[in-house]
């Protein structure tokens, strides 16, 4: 009986000590070892080593509860991620970045446009985003008003920063162009940002002085052409697979195209290659020599070609360029000859010169054969640049300052490029 009383007395003393000591210790831990969990602060418990067996069991139960909380913590979804907020400081200020771009390694297939979950970075610092919504192009003028001098052009979905708006005119910055456009031709703000996510396209930029482009994704494959540094090319397929290439080869390649190629090795290394679309032709380059980003186009500067002392002949050539520029942004259609409804490369140059009474053959190869050659050092506005791999397959119109206008492909339509985005096979001069 006395032993029972003593035991009860001992338990009471130990319990009183734990009630007194543990809260004090808990307060000390509370200042240094708190962990936030969904708005609740969980404090580490301190257990007395000398408590009776009953108190040990209670402590074990409490410990089991703490484990359940820890498991719950691991299963909780990051509340910031749930609302689309990223902790990456490089993307937190997405609205302060510029043309729509994104590293290809972070983007899902297909490569024509990012998915709704992809974060788009814009390579343009903007106060208010604007996207051109036009058929063809809209003029950018030095001053607001129809009488303002034209200093640039924006084609459909070109991106810009809208600085201000007044009387129906928007002051914009896009690429190297700073001027005014009619506000009616712009989609603005949040609507522009949503549209940008849908229409952005993946582009590859060459990061070596020259790059061999091949017919198939192998260094043993025939060379298609050489591309220039810093030029952008449309990515047709970013993530190649063996199955995709087997179907592509069956449809587009002959046995001769596969000569000297170890196909097993090619399929093993396929992830290191990418397919590009160049003038509506499919080619392959190694990812080691390019960078890939999602982009939207920006306004193009219209450099003043005419000089006060130019001869009359040069002025007439300027008229050819001015006429050709009217169709900037129009559709590419293979086999087409309509400057407004759709044309291919040779149909474009044929249609431009036909307007001025000069008749050219129908195909790019025939045009090249019919025209006298011109040295690159003597190139003039209105000359035709011919491109291809071994034989002529593409033609463009030279507009001055190292630039051409051409019906490029079904994705880009009629656009302006560097005259040396590919090595020209020939430069010809219509008379």
Describe it for me?
- Strands 10-9-8-5-11 form a 5-stranded antiparallel β-sheet. Strands 17-16-15-12-18 form a 5-stranded antiparallel β-sheet, with no helix packed on it. A 5-stranded antiparallel β-sheet has the order 25-24-23-22-26.
- It is globular, with a radius of gyration of 33 Å.
- It starts with a helix and ends with a strand.
- It is an alpha+beta fold.
- Residues 1-11, 16-52, 58-110, 115-119 and 304-309 have low confidence and may be disordered.
- The protein folds into 4 domains: 2-75, no CATH class; 94-202, Roll (SH3 type barrels), CATH 2.30.30.40; 206-295, SH3 type barrels, CATH 2.30.30.40; 303-428, endopeptidase domain like (from Nostoc punctiforme) (endopeptidase fold (from Nostoc punctiforme)), CATH 3.90.1720.10.
- The protein has helices spanning 2-30, 53-75, 79-82, 189-199, 242-252, 263-268, 312-325, 345-355, 364-370, and strands spanning 35-37, 40-42, 100-101, 121-122, 129-132, 137-141, 150-155, 159-166, 169-174, 177-182, 186-188, 201-206, 210-214, 223-228, 232-237, 273-278, 281-286, 290-295, 300-301, 337-338, 342-343, 384-388, 392-400, 403-409, 413-418, 426-428.
- A hairpin with a 2-residue loop joins strand 9 (169-174) and strand 10.
